[in-house]
Design goal:
The protein has 142 residues and is mainly alpha-helical. Helices cover 55% and strands 10% of the residues. It is elongated.
C-alpha cells in the first residue's frame, strides 16, 4: 500500500516477493493433490488467488505503473518545456540536464497510520518527515 501513496518510488522488496512466490508454488502443489469438492480446497484456492492478486497489484504499483507513468510524464514535460521555454534560450543552454531534472516533492503532506507505536492512530505529516519511518515499515501510508 505504501507504494501506491508514496511521493517517490520506494525500494523494491525482492526477497519478500521471492519468498511469497515460493510459498505460492508450494500451496498450488498441495492443492493439486486435494479433493476439489472439499470446502478446505475452496478456501485454499481463494487464498491462492488473493495472494496472486496482491502480487500483481504490488508489481503494477511498484514497477509497471511507475515506469509507464514516468515515461509518459517525461515526454509530456519535455515537450511542454521545450515549447514554452527552451526554444527561447540561447543554444548553449538548451541541452543542460540540470534544468530538466525532476525531483519528488518530499514536502507534500501524506496520511500515515502507526503500526508499532500507538497502533492504528492516524496522522498527517510532510512526507520528508516520515520517509525513514515508511522505509522501515514503522508506519504505513494511507
Amino acid at each position: 500500500m505504501n507504494e501506491k501513496f508514496a511521493v517517490q518510488i520506494l525500494p523494491y522488496e525482492k526477497p519478500i516477493v521471492d519468498m511469497v512466490l515460493i510459498q505460492l508454488v508450494y500451496m498450488e502443489e498441495n492443492l493439486a493433490s486435494t479433493n476439489k469438492n472439499e470446502m478446505l480446497y475452496i478456501a485454499h484456492r481463494m487464498e491462492v488467488e488473493r495472494i496472486r492478486y496482491l502480487l500483481v497489484s504490488y508489481h503494477q504499483s511498484a514497477v509497471g505503473g511507475e515506469l509507464q507513468f514516468a515515461t509518459d510524464f517525461y515526454k509530456s514535460v519535455e515537450s511542454h518545456f521545450h515549447q514554452v521555454a527552451v526554444r527561447h534560450m540561447p543554444r548553449s543552454c538548451q541541452n543542460d540536464e540540470n534544468i530538466r531534472k525532476v525531483v519528488p516533492n518530499l514536502d507534500s503532506h501524506v496520511f500515515v497510520r502507526a503500526i508499532n507505536v500507538a497502533a492504528g492512530s492516524v496522522h498527517m505529516f510532510k512526507y520528508r518527515d516520515v520517509e525513514p519511518l515508511v522505509l522501515e515499515e514503522i508506519v504505513e501510508l494511507i
